[in-house]
Specification:
- The complex is a heterotrimer of chains A (304), B (569) and C (317).
- Chain A is mainly α and 304 residues long.
- Helix content of chain A is 73%, strand content 0%.
- Chain A has 13 helices and no strands.
- In chain A, α5 packs antiparallel against α6 and α5 packs parallel to α12.
- Chain B is an alpha+beta fold and 569 residues long.
- Chain B is globular and about 75 Å long.
- The N terminus of chain B is likely disordered.
- Chain C is mainly α.
- Chain C has two domains: 74 residues, no CATH class; 219 residues, MetI-like (MetI-like fold, Orthogonal Bundle).
- Chain C is globular, with a radius of gyration of 24 Å.
- The termini of chain C are close together.
- The chains are: A mainly alpha (304), B alpha+beta (569), C mainly alpha (317).
- At the A-C interface, α6, α7, α10, α11 and α12 of A face α1, α6, α7, α12 and α13 of C.
Chain lengths: 304, 569, 317
């Protein structure tokens, strides 16, 4: 059989695995094994899934609309009708936290995916092509890294006016340089490894080299980097919201912490819960990112 | 941070209320639109009115001690004719006015640089200049001499050259001519016509008098960080971003006649600390680092005061948020739509939710103005919470059940009350038949558009209005400062309203004025105002127990009164 | 080594040039409040704005404006703030000690807490200590600094009536050591939570990496006493990435920790830059960006040079 079909063949998993049900249960068993070996990562994954579910099903989970100022009285304590109490504007804090997950997660995912993709592309181009293209891209990246990140974010959000699009755009710009640099590093080191040299020597076509040898490594690295970035981006978005540059009239967690400061110390739940939500979400991503990195560890050595 | 960490500059422009409130008096403001002052004051000038402070229960005055104040905004300059930020609250500390009147207490009269005035006719004031109002030691080279009438002439002449000055509205419009007598002991102010608000304006912090040597070309630039005046305090030091230190002016002329002619002020000095973050100001007060703090709401002050020995001074606050509609932009050109908005607004909801009951609804005139405002029963007819009526008006005007409007607002506002009012307000509009297209903007952009009337409708700045002139001018086509800035008055649609406003301002008899101003309000209501004040709250200012004999009940005039003291015992 | 340094500095200069031009253009093309309007004041008239623009030199062609600024920088004139008309250089001089002290204190706490715990965590891998460190580090990285700063400031005030000196300006260390520490230790501690967490993890993974190497295995086989020596030796190598990260953290902190400075009312460079940004105080933002860029470039260089000390195998040509 040709190489391309080999992976899909029944013999890949062993003779007993020839039956489909067995294959599935084997895969589940493998996953379970991974989970047991990485308890922290599993916890991280669970946390993320909880928040993701919160984000997706927000309207079903939240008892009130997040901007409903008639949900309850002002600065109410926690109770059964208001799990986390109400804030200064009479809005239900629990509903706001639930809806806030939509903003944090969507902003984070879109920025990181978008920025990460661009970064990977740039890194590959830069690393593989070398020469002037490489130098130009690298110097730009260096300059971008030298630019104080918060300053860049502030300038952009102030210029374009605060909105979902602006925040995402600004965060993408913040993500790209770091990813580019890391990916370029990998591409460079892979470029020099012997398989590639051999392939080159035998006259193999360039894109093939890219696809076969470099891309898998890069994508793997990219995924790991992006998972780690998600946590940082969530914090960045919260910080921006805290500074007043977040998405207006939204239930953004960072903004809620800021607003709650006006009520502190008289209404601690208003500040605690959004802040705790941020912490937990970032925690989840960090744990998961760590676990993924640990699992992929052998691949990573030397390409930091 | 006070409101948010957002826009320091505009915080300066808007939070002067905050700054002046911290300056030691709760309540209203003196002077122009931007100025907020607080608190009442104690006056003892020759027995001419004024309330007692805490009525003698504070014991005998003690000399010494320093007073700490937190300011959310930095000083921009010590030039009173162009200052618009935190500095304004300190001009009464550094300089002198001819005479100050309180908008809250009509019996309060504080003769400072002048000892009195004569009025040969309704449009002329001849002030007698007091002897011995002596300039403090200073680093600007101004000699330590007595102020005279020429200083007043030079100062007010200068305002004429500063079109952007807050005081320009008053001087350019109402100073027809002025002169100092040859012996410089008399200052004559000629108005073009009688003006009801003259007494309010002349005593404003932005009409204080700076010695003429400080206004020379050489010194003008230095006023950004230095000062020279004959007021109760002198500016010892100013560090940008950090704060200012004021010390007692050793040359200050005023004595406490009720206490052995002791020289005033009693305290050795004031330390103004710039703390941009509101939560930090509150914390600093709680931990004894500040002498005074005004809560954003009555509740906040009460909670802070629980179990503590702070002195509480409760006063109405002469500020309000307003809803502005651009009368020349659809659909607001139609008076029925404007009136519909008024009926859609539930002012009581703001009172309950934002201020927990410690506020009252406003008509065109805010309620702290007392009987100048239309009485409540009359207001009911023009402005009550009636969403059904709102919808009926909309239907009458458009034939539809709802009308589309576009409302802009600052996305993250440093104006403390904005973010609290906004969600409630949007909900009310929607319930009243308005299909609101929200247009959030960056604060700077919003302020730009708001200033240049580049919008259809919006919430306004929470400005401070010590006296009724601003309420009137808000309805005028030229706007509250009569310079076409922020101008959304329906005078733009009805020139007869413009005329009426100016006519009423010329009535100097208080009874006649009151009648006329009531009639004016009715007329405006009938035409559907485009500027709707919402509610004005109370505020409680807290003082550390060691601050004694605090001025009360006279509003921003308290800034001029210095018979209070610090007793650390 | 010298050629290496010179080359790095040259590249750094080019980067800074590009950076300053980029900021310059960004500030001017960005819509929003016109700084001339802000400077002119609240009751500004169109003539007033025109005059303000003249004064601020905003009507000159961009190249001229840029050259004005650049030549000023080289002659020591770092510009004048268009908001308060004070020389930027003076403001920087006044505020630098605040930011610097905050950075130093944060760094000290980070190193003192981060490295020992990181080492302990690696050496006793998978022990309770290891788990404890890893979990706290993960939390430390996840907590938003503005949230922590808020709680650190407000809660003690409510519960015990205590707060660090607020609005007191910079309490000079030589005048009042205790006051100075009261002012700086809380914000430094808040900042250090995040950076120490990062350093702990990095030290741990880096040391583990080094300990895994072949020469380590051989040495381990030789016995315990050697092991201690090797751990120390390995530590030096493993610190390379840690130093990189510390360098980056320093650079970031030298730029000024905006949020923490504001919450604790420290008159530092971060608050300064932030304000200037919103007031469209061009000269200040321009100069501060340059300053931030310089700190990053210089610190990166210092860090790279320190590699040579840490790992004798590394040599630059």
């Amino acid at each position: 059989m040709s190489k391309d079909v080999a992976i899909a063949s029944p013999s890949f998993f062993g003779e007993e695995a020839a039956r489909p049900e067995a294959r599935l249960s084997q895969r589940i068993a493998k996953l379970g094994q991974l989970a047991r070996q990485n308890p922290l990562g599993t916890i991280g994954l669970i946390i993320i899934l909880v928040f993701a579910a919160m984000a997706v099903f927000a309207p079903l989970i939240a008892p009130y609309a997040p901007t409903d100022t008639r949900a309850g009285g002002v600065d109410e304590s926690m109770s059964w009708s208001h799990l986390f109490g109400t804030n200064r504007a009479g809005q239900d804090i629990f509903s706001r936290v639930v809806h806030g997950s939509r903003i944090s997660l969507s902003v984070a995912f879109i920025s990181v995916l978008g920025g990460g993709t661009v970064g990977i592309l740039l890194g590959i181009i830069s690393g593989y092509l070398g020469g002037i293209v490489d130098s130009t891209i690298q110097r730009t990246v260096d300059a971008a890294i030298a630019f104080p990140a918060l300053l860049l974010l502030l300038i952009i959000t102030q210029a374009l006016g605060p909105s979902f699009g602006t925040i995402v755009f600004a965060l993408m710009l913040a993500v790209i340089p770091g990813v580019t640099r890391v990916v370029r590093g990998t591409v460079l080191s892979e470029k020099n490894n012997q398989y590639v040299e051999a392939a080159r020597a035998s006259g193999a076509w360039a894109p093939r080299i890219l696809l076969r040898h470099i891309l898998p490594n890069v994508v793997a690295l990219g995924i790991i980097v992006m998972t780690t970035l998600l946590g940082a981006i969530i914090l960045a978005e919260a910080a921006l919201s805290f500074l007043g540059l977040g998405i207006p009239s939204s239930a953004s967690w960072g903004q809620d912490v800021n607003k709650a400061r006006q009520s502190l110390p008289y209404h601690i739940p208003a500040a605690i819960f959004p802040g705790a939500a941020i912490t937990l979400t970032v925690l989840g991503f960090n744990l998961l990112g760590d676990a993924i990195r640990d699992i992929a560890d052998p691949r990573l050595r030397g390409s930091r | 941070m006070a409101g948010s960490y957002w826009d320091k500059f505009t915080k300066q422009r808007i939070s002067r209320r905050r700054a002046l409130q911290s300056a030691g008096v709760a309540g209203a403001a003196a002077g122009a639109i931007w100025v907020v002052g607080c608190g009442g004051g104690d006056d003892d000038d020759g027995g001419n009115g004024g309330n007692g402070g805490n009525g003698g229960g504070d014991g005998k005055p003690v000399r010494g001690g320093r007073y700490s104040v937190g300011s959310a905004a930095d000083f921009d300059t010590f030039d009173p004719y162009i200052g618009i930020a935190a500095s304004v609250g300190y001009f009464p500390r550094l300089y002198n006015v001819l005479v100050n009147y309180s908008a809250l207490d009509t019996s309060f009269e504080f003769f400072d640089l002048a000892t009195g005035y004569e009025q040969p006719d309704d449009a002329t004031y001849i002030f007698t200049i007091r002897d011995g109002v002596k300039v403090s030691p200073n680093a600007l080279g101004v000699p330590e001499r007595n102020l005279d009438a020429e200083d007043v002439v030079v100062a007010y002449d200068r305002i004429k050259t500063l079109p952007q000055s807050n005081a320009a509205a008053f001087i350019n419009k109402w100073l027809a001519s002025h002169e100092a007598s040859t012996d410089k002991r008399q200052y004559t102010f000629n108005l073009p016509s009688p003006y009801y608000f003259f007494r309010n304006r002349i005593g404003s912090p932005i009409n204080t008098v700076v010695p003429k040597e400080a206004l020379t070309d050489a010194n003008i630039g230095k006023l950004r960080s230095q000062a020279a005046g004959a007021g109760p305090f002198m500016l010892r030091d100013y560090a940008e971003g950090t704060g200012a230190t004021l010390d007692r002016n050793p040359n200050y002329y005023r004595r406490d006649e009720s206490n052995n002619n002791e020289q005033l002020p009693y305290i050795d000095g004031m330390d103004v600390k710039i703390i941009t973050d509101r939560a930090a100001i509150r914390t600093a007060f709680q931990t004894g680092q500040l002498s005074v703090y005004t809560g954003e709401t009555v509740d906040e002050s009460l909670q802070l005061a629980q179990g503590q020995n702070y002195t509480q001074v409760k006063d109405p606050v002469n500020t309000f948020l307003a809803f502005t509609m651009h009368p020349e932009k659809a659909p607001w050109t139609d008076e029925r739509i404007r009136k519909a908005a008024n009926f859609a607004i539930n002012r009581q909801e703001f009172v309950d939710k934002v201020y927990n009951g410690e506020a009252q609804a406003n008509g065109i005139f805010h309620w702290p103005l007392g009987d100048l405002a239309l009485p409540e029963d009359e207001l009911e007819e023009f402005q009550r919470y009636d969403p059904a009526e709102a919808k009926a008006l909309i239907r009458a005007a458009t034939g539809q059940d709802t009308v589309k409007i576009k409302m802009m607002y600052p996305a993250e506002s440093t104006i403390e009350q904005h973010s609290l009012h906004l969600p409630i307000f949007l909900q009310q509009l929607k319930d009243g038949g308005f299909d609101v297209e929200e247009d959030p903007q960056a604060f700077g952009t919003w302020l730009d558009n708001y200033t240049n009337l580049n919008y259809e409708c919006s919430l306004a700045l929470n400005q401070v209005y010590e006296y009724a002139e601003f309420n009137m001018d808000w309805q005028h086509s030229e706007g509250p400062a009569r310079n076409n800035i922020y101008a959304v008055g329906i005078g733009k649609l009805y020139p007869e309203i413009d005329e009426e406003i100016d006519r009423v301002k010329g009535i100097t008899d208080p009874e006649e004025f009151k009648e006329a101003v009531h009639e004016l309000q009715r007329t405006i209501f009938e035409k559907g105002p485009a500027f709707l004040p919402l509610v004005s709250p109370y505020a409680i200012t807290l003082y550390q127990p060691y601050v004694k004999n605090i001025p009360q009940g006279i509003g921003a005039s308290g800034l001029y009164v210095n018979t209070w003291w610090i007793d650390q015992a | 080594m010298q050629t290496y340094i010179v080359r790095r500095l040259l590249i750094g200069a080019i980067i800074l040039f590009v950076l300053s031009v980029a900021v310059f253009i960004l500030l001017r093309i960005v819509p929003g409040s016109d700084p001339a309007e802000l400077r002119c004041g609240l009751n500004c008239t169109p003539e007033g704005i025109k005059q303000a623009r003249e004064e601020m030199g905003l009507n000159d062609p961009y190249v001229v404006q840029y050259w004005d600024w650049l030549s000023g920088v080289f002659t020591g004139d770092l510009g004048t703030s268009v908001v308060n008309f004070r020389p930027v250089g003076d403001s920087i001089k006044a505020r630098f000690p605040v930011t610097f002290e905050l950075m130093v204190l944060t760094l000290i706490i980070t190193i003192v807490v981060g490295i020992p715990f990181g080492v302990a965590s690696a050496v006793w891998k998978n022990s309770p200590i290891d788990y404890g460190v890893r979990v706290s580090a993960i939390f430390g990285l996840a907590v938003p600094s503005f949230w922590l700063a808020t709680l650190v400031l407000i809660l003690p005030a409510t519960w015990w009536g205590y707060a660090p000196p607020l609005g007191a300006g910079y309490i000079h260390i030589e005048e009042d050591l205790w006051g100075n520490l009261k002012q700086f230790v809380p914000p430094a501690a808040v900042l250090a939570v995040g950076s120490a967490a990062g350093v702990m993890r990095l030290t741990r993974s880096s040391l583990l990496e080094v300990l895994r190497q072949d020469y380590m295995r051989t040495a381990r086989a030789k016995g315990l006493a050697e092991r201690a020596l090797i751990v120390r030796h390995g530590l030096k190598n493993s610190l390379i990435p840690v130093v990189t990260v510390l360098g980056l953290q320093m650079a970031g902190l030298l730029g000024g920790a905006i949020i923490v400075e504001q919450i604790f009312t420290l008159p530092g460079l971060g608050a300064f830059t932030f304000e200037a940004l919103f007031r469209k105080d061009f000269p200040v933002v321009q100069t501060m960006t340059l300053y931030a860029g310089i700190t990053v470039v210089l610190l990166n260089l210092l860090v790279d040079i320190s590699y040579a000390w840490l790992d004798p195998r590394i040599r630059y040509s």
